[in-house]
Amino acid sequence: MSKLVIVGTVAFDAIETPFGKTDKILGGAATFIGLAASHFNIDAAAVSIVGGDFPQKYLDLLSKKNIDISGIEIVKEGKTFFWSGKYHNDMNTRDTLVTELNTLADFKPVVPENYRNAEIVMLGNLHPIVQSSILDQMTKKPRLVILDTMNFWMDSALEDLHNVMKRVDVITINDEEARQLTGEYSLVVAARKIHTMGPKYVVIKKGEHGAFLFHEDQVFYAPALPLEAVFDPTGAGDTFAGGFAGYIAKTGITSFENMKNAVIYGSTLASFCVEKFGTERMENLKSLEVHNRLLQFRDLTKFDIKLP
Fold first, then answer.
1. Are 112 and 69 contacting, i.e. CB atoms less than 8 angstroms apart?
2. Are 33 and 124 in contact (CB under 8 A)?
3. Sign (positive/negative) of CA torsion 150, 233, 190, 244?
4. Which residues, at least 6 apart from 202, have a Cβ–Cβ distance to it below 8 Å?
């Protein structure tokens, strides 16, 4: 089993979807990644920043999930990062209503001393310079560095993004972001171009249409599990990344074949995340539920091709 360092936001979200709306609730990339990774009973630490307004009960939740929170800085006089968004009827598009960086504006992450030798590093969606600063603190080269990013950084910090991409092994982005990053419409061509930017493995998420994994000339596709209702897609991509990183950390195997399983585990956990608002579903998710849904995934994709 490998140590896992998780870097990203621990935050407040306020969400509106066709199914309802919430006031400020627990959110943030590192939160969703951590809750997903906790299902693998690994040695994981979260690196983030919050303000004095962040409830102790949320920190306790992460601790109870076996996530080391010594790397979460608490700025007593500051406020926690806050994001508010409204989803359209298709649940694939959304409008950002409010973004308050607050303490995140001056975030200088510090990796806990006993995690600077971690084998797996999961760089959640943050400024590429902040992501690079994490790698600078590692005392040895991690076996696998996974990077998540978004179109905002492609618009505002593209050179910094290219610099950190040279240092990672896996990148996870959605199809729209892959096209923006490369200028290519074909995801196969886009993945090939991303390989030349540094990452050896490219995961392209397609939301309700599943995810692709690319490595050199190899391609793997995992469908998304058909769900009766999607209440809130917020955090689904981070939950996917947490499941992916957690499975790799648990098994300690970084091959393409093992990453296929990691993609399936990530997709399975993400399918739970969207069933309730915020982190609610992930907070109480049982291992038996995950096991049963993995069986559903197997049945969904397992077939024998009858050749003539």
1. no
2. yes
3. positive
4. 170, 171, 178, 191, 194, 195, 212, 213, 214, 215
Entry pTM: 0.96
- Going by C-beta distance under 8 Å and a sequence separation of 6 or more, which residues neighbour residue 260? 213, 220, 222
The label of the residue with tokens 């590429």 reads 128
Is the separation of the CB atoms in 49 and 103 below 8 Å?
Answer: yes
For residue 152, what are its two tokens?
């905002």
- Joined together, the tokens standing for residue 146 give 């996974």
Q: Convert the pLDDT of each residue in 134-191 to its tens digit.
A: 999 999 999 999 999 999 999 999 999 999 999 999 999 999 999 999 999 999 999 9
Contact present, 209 and 223 (Cβ < 8 Å): yes
